């Protein structure tokens, strides 16, 4: 598929995010212009406390925006009901699930809730989509296990399968690689890249794995104290955006390897 | 016949109704210690009954004269629990976190406990005894007309709880995930609370506060069936609750004797060891 045919999935214009209170509003970041297309794997990076979570919460309608516009599938985010949004946007959050006393299959099948009837019965089509999601993430061997038997890495894969079963154009993951070892960090992000290619979904995740994100993502959204930039990793490296990511006293960005080095 | 049959039906209603409302509260509040009474239903009911039995000098005597002591107690319990629930419902529309509702329910509990203790301090021994007897709980006092009122409210509550199965299952992931699955959290929460109030409120009004069943039966069922999927849990709690309550009732009704032991004592005496045994045997709490 060439670039011209790609669909606009997320588009923000002049977006300001932050918190509104009785005393006025606290702006965390402003002038955010992002365009995400179908089939793209997009990483959201920035220092702690820069507003990554606030941006994700605003994009997922958990918290209201301050200014500007957000369009998902060329429709304003405001106009979506909860149920409509559940059919275009699925989430993988950092918070642990409340109950792990379910089989992997049951948990993945919960992703079909926006489509099932009042009591949540799975149709043959639903079952097929759930099976397909399990195969795509390659967790067939876990299917009948209880979720409390799984390791952190396995559980993260199950949660991604659940988001996949929700069958949405856009999947947003909040720090999907925390608590994982180096191998599983790479594994999960590689898996996301594969999914974006195979399913033509847009996958947006926040992460602190900057070197992995530079290697795997089609596009990065970089939040620095002065601006929010979104471009391909190559362009961002040559424009020197990563230099401004962190205070300069301790670590420096090495353009050749695409990673940060501790200053000696 | 007119004693045994209504009593058995009452046992089924009490066991299944309290079990299901306990299950809904544990899932809603993500708390294994929650039971049907965390919303303050019992406290409200006992406050109502305390006002009727011990506050006679105020207005209870006229009520008792008009309606007879039993109906006025039912009325007191209904009115008391309705008042507390109404307040909790209004509060739950305003707060974002379900935990706040839990704590508010507990606060109402202490307020009514305080009022009850003030009332009992000033009341006569006979009035106090009447109140204490209500607190024992009883399955055997219901006549057919009373039973028909109880069972129709109960049926409504059960229907609402079946309607809540889907939201309860999505709440297993946590409120944020449930919302991302398209669930209208506030509406789902209110339906669950109304279902619980119908079930626990009507049962408490007619039989007094039956302890323990609502807390224990969901745990028992989760241990036996090894799942938290409400499509399995809800019917399973219904059946197990009914069976256990029938067993407790036959034990309370001492064989070849006119004597009936307080049902509350029996449910705890039998239920607590069973739950402990299950937890120790599996070494893991399913939730």
Q: What attributes characterize this protein structure?
A:
heterodimer; A: alpha/beta; Rossmann fold; six-stranded mixed β-sheet; 8 helices; B: mainly alpha; ABC transporter involved in vitamin B12 uptake, BtuC; about 0% strand
Describe the fold and architecture:
- The complex is a heterodimer of chains A (264) and B (287).
- Chain A is an alpha/beta fold and 264 residues long.
- Chain A has one domain (40-51, 87-262): P-loop containing nucleotide triphosphate hydrolases (Rossmann fold, 3-Layer(aba) Sandwich).
- Chain A has 8 helices and 12 strands.
- Chain B has one domain (4-282): ABC transporter involved in vitamin B12 uptake, BtuC.
- In chain B, 79% of the residues lie in helices and 0% in strands.
- Chain B has helices at 4-28, 41-54, 56-67, 69-94, 98-122, 125-136, 144-163, 165-171, 175-180, 185-207, 213-225, 230-252, 263-282.
- Chain A binds chain B through residues 60, 62, 82-87, 89-91, 93, 95-99, 101-103, 106-107, 110-111, 113-114, 116, 118-120, 146, 148, 166, and chain B through 27, 30, 162-163, 165-166, 169-174, 176-177, 179-184, 222, 226-229, 231, 284, 286-287.
Question: What's the gist of this structure?
Answer:
The complex is a heterodimer of chains A (264) and B (287). Chain A contains eight helices and twelve strands.
User: What portion of residues of chain A belong to β-strands?
Assistant: 25-35%
Largest sheet of chain A: 6 strands, mixed
Instruction: Count structural domains of chain A.
Output: 1
Distance between the termini of chain B: 41 Å
CATH topology of chain A: Rossmann fold
Question: Which architecture of chain A does the CATH hierarchy give at level 2?
Answer: 3-Layer(aba) Sandwich
Q: If you consult CATH, what is the topology of chain B?
A: ABC transporter involved in vitamin B12 uptake, BtuC
- Percent helix among the residues of chain B? over 70%
Mean pLDDT of chain B: 85
Compressed to H and E, one letter per element, the order of chain A equals: EEEHEEHEHHHEHEHEEHEE
Level-2 CATH architecture of chain B: Orthogonal Bundle
With helices defined by DSSP (H or I, 4 residues minimum), what is the helix count of chain B? 13
């Amino acid at each position: 598929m060439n670039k011209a045919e790609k669909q606009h999935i997320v588009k923000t214009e002049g977006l300001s995010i932050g918190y509104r209170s009785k005393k006025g509003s606290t702006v965390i970041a402003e002038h955010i212009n992002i365009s995400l297309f179908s089939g793209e794997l997009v990483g959201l990076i920035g220092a702690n406390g820069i507003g990554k979570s606030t941006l994700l919460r605003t994009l997922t309608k958990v918290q209201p925006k301050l200014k500007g516009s957000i369009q998902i599938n060329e429709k304003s985010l405001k106009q979506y009901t909860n149920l409509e949004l559940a059919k275009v946007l699925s989430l993988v959050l950092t918070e642990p699930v409340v109950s792990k006393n379910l089989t992997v299959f049951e948990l993945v099948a919960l992703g079909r809730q926006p489509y099932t009837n009042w009591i949540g019965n799975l149709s043959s089509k639903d079952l097929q989509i759930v099976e397909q999601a399990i195969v795509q993430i390659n967790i067939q061997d876990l299917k009948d296990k209880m979720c409390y038997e799984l390791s952190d890495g396995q559980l993260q894969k199950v949660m991604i399968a659940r988001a996949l079963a929700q069958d949405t154009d856009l999947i947003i993951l909040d720090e999907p690689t925390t608590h994982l070892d180096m191998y599983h960090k790479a594994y999960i992000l590689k898996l996301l890249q594969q999914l974006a290619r195979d399913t033509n979904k847009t996958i947006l995740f926040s992460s602190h794995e900057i070197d992995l994100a530079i290697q795997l993502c089609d596009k990065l959204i970089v939040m620095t104290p002065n601006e929010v930039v979104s471009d391909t990793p190559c362009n961002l490296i040559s424009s020197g955006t990563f230099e401004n990511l962190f205070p300069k006293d301790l670590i420096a960005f090495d353009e050749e390897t695409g990673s940060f080095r501790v200053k000696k | 016949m007119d004693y045994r049959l209504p009593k058995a039906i009452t046992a089924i209603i009490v066991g299944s109704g309290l079990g299901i409302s306990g299950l809904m509260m544990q899932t809603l509040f993500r708390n294994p210690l929650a039971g049907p009474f965390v919303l303050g239903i019992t406290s409200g009911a006992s406050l109502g009954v305390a006002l009727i039995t011990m506050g006679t000098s105020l207005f209870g005597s006229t009520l008792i004269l008009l309606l007879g002591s039993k109906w006025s107690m039912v009325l007191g319990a209904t009115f008391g629990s309705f008042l507390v629930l109404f307040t909790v419902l209004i509060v739950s529309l305003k707060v974002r976190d379900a935990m706040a509702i839990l704590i508010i329910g507990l606060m109402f509990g202490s307020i009514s406990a305080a009022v009850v203790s003030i009332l009992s301090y000033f009341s006569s021994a006979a009035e106090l005894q009447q109140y204490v007897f209500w607190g024992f709980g009883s399955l055997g006092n219901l006549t057919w007309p009373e039973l028909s009122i109880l069972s129709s409210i109960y049926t409504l509550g059960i229907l609402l709880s079946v309607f809540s199965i889907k939201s309860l299952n999505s709440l297993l992931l946590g409120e944020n995930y449930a919302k991302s699955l398209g669930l209208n959290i506030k509406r789902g929460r209110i339906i669950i609370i109304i279902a619980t109030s119908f079930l626990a409120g009507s049962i408490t009004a007619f039989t007094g506060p039956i302890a323990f069943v609502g807390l224990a039966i969901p745990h028992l069922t989760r241990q036996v069936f090894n799942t938290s999927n409400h499509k399995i849990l809800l019917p399973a709690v219904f059946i197990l609750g009914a069976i256990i309550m029938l067993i407790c009732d036959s034990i309370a009704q001492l064989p070849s004797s006119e004597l009936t032991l307080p049902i509350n004592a029996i449910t705890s005496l039998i239920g607590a060891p069973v739950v402990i045994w299950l937890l120790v045997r599996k070494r893991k709490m399913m939730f």
